[in-house]
Amino acid sequence: MLLPSAPTPSPLLVAFLGCYRDLVRFLTRRTGSQDEANAIAHDTWIRLTELAQRDGLTPPTCPSESRAYIFTSARHLAIDRLRHQQTVQRHADHHAAPTLAASPDEAESLMYRQAIGAVDGALAGLPDRARQVFLRNKVHGEDQSDLAREFGVSRNLIERDMMLAMDRVEAAMHRWHGSRSAVSHMPRQGRRQSLSALLGLGAFGLGGAALWRWAAYATPQWQDAYATQHAQRARHVLPDGSVLTLDAASRVDVTYYGSRRVVSLLAGAAFFEVTPEPARPFQVDVARQHDGVRVTVLGTRFGVEREPSDAVRIEVESGRVAVEPTGKGRWPRQELTAAQRLRVLPHDDRRPPAASIERHDHVSEAASWRHGMVAFDNQPLDDVIDRLRRYVAQTVDLDAAVSPLRLSGQVRTDKVDDFLAALPRILPVAATLADGRWQVTRPGR
């Protein structure tokens, strides 16, 4: 006699059990309440159970996709719950007697004065034009084009004044609030964020409650750091459901604010699958010694890489991204769509701004390292070897005499040793492995 087999559990429900603790921690950080987080997690389970019982719906089966779906569903439930609570509170406030004083209490007033002092100190350290431009644009609402004409400079210079000022103000607010600033890895870089809640104060004359709310909005809501070792790749699902894939020997810092999602690429390469949030753009910052590169998207799939030469490579698989300079960069803002690549060369004051970028259309594959392949196009051998060091355990030494030789082709990341052994058949070099160390030198040396 055949017994009926047990029903196959839903992949989503299995994934929920596996990530329950992480989900509750995420919701606790987002709501500030353990009880609230548990309630939202319970609601998420009910929604997933209902989904599993529906006919005709195919939920994600990949573990990482299931986790992303679960976190996204929970985040939406948290938002719905917050909106409901706000609606109830507004209704209660409307009918409640005005028993509270309109002015902030003594503790809040002290916080207000300290924050204003921090902002005033930051503005006092700015060049005169940057300070005037910042206050007249952000506080008094004067147009940047009008300010450029008045000061006799280009609009680009006015924008750079604004970026410098916003960077200083944000850093000051982080110090005041005692939080870790995402600009710590990017000295003197501009931050294009919404400061209107702070700076629409009529020369800083609004009550402390508004300033405190802005500080909570501008400081990080969630942050983490990720890194990989040599010959290791890693995939991480972020709290909003976006997916971050790290190449070998790569490092990033991730910080989510109320107004934007920021990733600082510190080393190596990363590929991003971004969940669209029009009200909270996703940006990737790459800081360099003299300038930086910023990539901003709403929702797309793209890769960003710091090359050994300090060039920055951006490749788009789908969607659209904007790429712009920060710091001392002067090259024009660029937009990329699917199958396009932009390479931003290292900063050089002698180079015309437009010559700092290289565009390529019809790119066959974005971030090919995800699939175990690295491509080179007429690149110096020292850049090639530097790039491949991420995938080998042995030390690779390169003779400076052969480092300028150029190379084009593809290398499998799991076959780097084979590539090094075959290198003398491609270029006029000698390659030897001894005592766990590769030596690439001139022939006969």
Q: What can you see in these coordinates?
A:
By secondary structure, this protein is of the alpha+beta class. Helix content is 37%, strand content 24%. It contains eleven helices and 19 strands. It has helices at residues 11-31, 34-53, 63-95, 106-124, 128-138, 144-151, 155-177, 196-199, 208-218, 381-388, 416-422; strands at residues 222-227, 234-237, 243-246, 251-256, 261-267, 269-273, 282-287, 291-297, 301-306, 312-318, 320-327, 334-337, 341-344, 357-360, 373-380, 395-398, 406-412, 430-434, 437-441. Helix 4 (106-124) runs antiparallel to helix 7 (155-177) and helix 5 packs across helix 7. The termini are far apart. Residues 1-6, 95-104 and 179-217 have low confidence and may be disordered. It comes from Pigmentiphaga litoralis. One of its GO terms (biological process) is DNA-templated transcription initiation. This is RNA polymerase sigma factor (Sigma-70 family). GO terms for molecular function: DNA binding; sigma factor activity; sigma factor antagonist activity.
